[in-house]
Amino acid sequence: MTPDVAPTVEETATDIAEMEVRGAATIADAAAAALADQAEASTADTPAAFRADLEAAATELYRTRPTAVSLPNALRYVLRGLEPEDDREGEPVKSVDRLRTETVARARRFQRDLEHAQDTLGRVGANRLRDGDVVMTHCHSTDALSCIEAAVEDGKHIEAIVKETRPRLQGHITARALREMGVPVTLIVDNAARRYLDETDHVLVGADSIAADGSVINKIGTSGLAVNARERGVPVMVAAQSIKLHPDTMTGHTVEIEMRDEREVLEADNYLQIASDETSGAKGDSDDGLTVENPAFDVTPPRHVDAIVTEHGQYPPESVVVLMRELFGETTTDPWR
Ligand code: RUB
Fold first, then answer.
1. What pTM does this model have?
2. Is the CB of 206 under 6 A from ligand 1?
3. 30 lines ligand 1 (CB under 6 A)
4. 193 among the known binding-site residues?
5. In degrees, to the nearest 5, what angle opens at C-alpha 75 toward C-alphas 74 and 77?
6. How many CB atoms lie within 10 A of CB 22?
7. Is 139 assigned a catalytic role?
8. Which CATH class is domain 7-85+95-118?
9. What's the complex ipTM?
């Protein structure tokens, strides 16, 4: 029998691929919720068929976006425990109902832990921020925002310089979230970042993946910002829960950088509503020899990062592999095909 994928899994996969659901932590949360839905909706009548349904759902979710490791880490976490287990007579130890209950419980636990980890790392990150500090952000990271929120809750006055983050302009989401916290925000175009580093006490960004050597994979533009910050002597702090640690990089795998549609660049006005006659002629049309490249992420080498703030404490990037080994061991199995 072909495995059944629940409609909510398909919807979640589409939402992630089209960036209706975006940001590494939010993607992981949505993927875990979708697996819980799959477990509840599965009509499988044998443990093997149930497992096949869950693996098919994991595969569909896994294929959406390649860079944020929080997604495969979430899938692995929820599907751990589904491995076949037979008794002495060769009968499955766990019934479909038991597998269902356990899978839903694991998904819910994962979602709770995610929220808890973000709150905890926020308090760790807040300790690095002093009253009166100005923080520069890039893209929109819920982990990074959690640090600022905790600092504000501690009674510190924090101001923010927010890079708009072309082409999808996630900086506007950050600006809105910070203003809701009562943080004064100055919104700048990406190209103005170096100039405003003179007025900045910390660069604070999130991460989609962190490699074993401490490299940080985050929104395109992060590495340039970090290099400029180092030149200006501004510390770079990366806020990242441990589900952003990429276990496969311990065995030499590299992190795939997502290349997105050229229309995001050519039709950037869709995100800003400022179409001009000059650009509208070029919309979606690179047949005239124009090549458009649209990498969504880049890699910041560890030497440009001062601290990686996790729910387990803060780490110099070069030491993050210790935490990675502790949490993931040396090997991982993949619950997707
Ligand atoms: C989002 C992005 C964020 C990280 C961390 O990119 O690069 O900095 O995902 O976010 P996109 P969080 O918009 O392409 O998904 O801290 O919320 O996990």
1. 0.93
2. yes
3. no
4. no
5. 65
6. 19
7. yes
8. mainly alpha
9. 0.99
